[in-house]
Amino acid sequence: MEITPVDVPEHERVIEFKDAKLGLLGYVAIHSTQLGPAAGGVRMRPYDHPAEALNDALRLSRGMTFKNAAADLPLGGGKAVIVGDPATDKTPALLQAFGRVVQQLEGQYWTAEDMGMTPADMAQIGTETAYVAGLSDGDYASGDPSPITARGIYNAIRVVAAHRFGCAALKGWTVAVQGLGNVGWHLCRLLHDDGAKLIVTDINPEQIARAVERFSAKAVETNEIYAVEADIFAPCAIGGILNEVSIPQLKVAAVAGGANNQLATDADADRLHARGILYAPDFVANGGGIVNVATEILQVEDREAWVGLRLRSMENTMDRILTRARAESVSPHKVAASIVQELLQPRAA
Ligand code: NAD
User: Fold this and answer.
1) For 297-310, what is each residue's pLDDT tens digit?
2) pTM to 2 decimal places
3) Cα(7) to centroid of ligand 1, in Å?
4) Residue ranges of domains in the chain
5) Which of 59, 123, 125, 283 is the most buried (most CB within 10 A)?
6) Phi, psi for residue 138 in degrees, rounded to 5
7) Is 218 a catalytic residue?
8) For 126-163, what is each residue's pLDDT tens digit?
């Protein structure tokens, strides 16, 4: 195994790991350990070029610093990526080799599940390192984070509704949900139970059919979701969907969802603001998943109570962000980013 440091100005530590015999190539990017050990999942994707994988690791690890800080967790931001097709290139030997890379970082970075990875893969990685979370079994195993992620997003939607419509109750409001996977499905359930009307889309027609049946949702084509008449848009699929093409089409009063990196660029936060659309910053809204994973890293004894407290604190943070954004007439994204920057300022001795 070859491990080579990569010099990146904004990051504390970045390494490239390579084992030609195993077909393993990837990066661990540790953006910040200022608030605690860096935590963030490992993603496996068939990147076209190593530089693309490195960029993903850099961008996502920075995002984890923001998400962990916004959730008030004693954790920093990190992420790992492995170049390869999870369907064909993932082998036990490759996962174990990655586990040895994580172990060599001696707890500076904790890994967990991300795209292309499963709880079973985490168990395989865990044969070589103690610094892995997202396991299904074990003393502090935290299991599937999606229901907690969805709960956090649901709370964020209620805060947004209180700010935008003057009432947190969602009965009668229409929410357009993009993506009916792990997070989107649980979110739809919570919204439906609360009496909200749903408009849904997914690239998977079976998921759409299930949502229509289970939640009496209205289905639309994937490219139609941006232009539907609704009160709130909840992106729960892919990143970059709030951009110069989609934002002018939106006919909603607010956007609050679970997808990571919803804004294509920071300028898109200003675009939403200029259109009077209230945007709940994604890295604040979707922190429930990492809160759940954190119970495993921090070996929390009373998991349920601890998660409940953190979710309430996330809700208060969202409320403070939206209040300050209104007072300062700026986008909530700008406020959220500056709150995190303040948290990351070195404390005076
Ligand atoms: P998932 O893979 O289970 O679900 C994603 C769904 O989106 C799938 O049903 C897929 O078919 C659909 N989809 C993909 N492209 C689409 C498109 N162009 N239009 C409409 N639908 C599309 O993933 P997930 O775990 O539900 O995560 C959803 C999002 O939330 C991701 O951005 C993820 O990074 C983010 N997130 C997830 C968690 C978690 O706990 N799972 C935590 C934080 C953030």
Assistant:
1) 999 999 999 999 99
2) 0.93
3) 32
4) 2-125, 146-287+315-342
5) 125
6) 130, 170
7) no
8) 999 999 999 988 889 998 899 999 999 999 999 999 99
